[in-house]
């Protein structure tokens, strides 16, 4: 656990969020006293919400980092559900499994996003 915590509210489709991710990684790599807590804050529409849900579903499989890295590192815009799915497919995810998890836990995932929104004060 770090002595400095950065809480990052982000959207997988946010160009600024994508641009600062490598800097956050360098910071963490160079200073073991820093930790980052990622909190999904999908402000760019339905595809962003879907991407957040996918990362939550991946976390249930123990693959949050893999999904997060693929989505935040994507060179393509994530303007649609299909865009998100393409990125995850290329990262090796089983989309049927991801979507089944989302169907099962959508209420919980929605509550997490609502809490994150409330925390931002927006």
Task: Give an overview in words.
By secondary structure, the protein is mostly helical. It contains five helices and two strands, in the order βαβαααα. The protein has helices at residues 15-30, 46-60, 64-72, 81-90, 95-120, and strands at residues 4-10, 34-40. The chain has a two-stranded parallel sheet with strand order 1-2. The longest helix is centred in the C-terminal third of the chain and has 26 residues, at 95-120. It is globular and about 40 Å long. The mean pLDDT is 95.
Summarize the model shown:
By secondary structure, the chain is mostly helical. The protein contains 5 helices and 2 strands.
Q: What's the arrangement of secondary structure elements?
A:
Layout: E1 4-10, H1 15-30, E2 34-40, H2 46-60, H3 64-72, H4 81-90, H5 95-120
Parallel strand pairs: 1-2
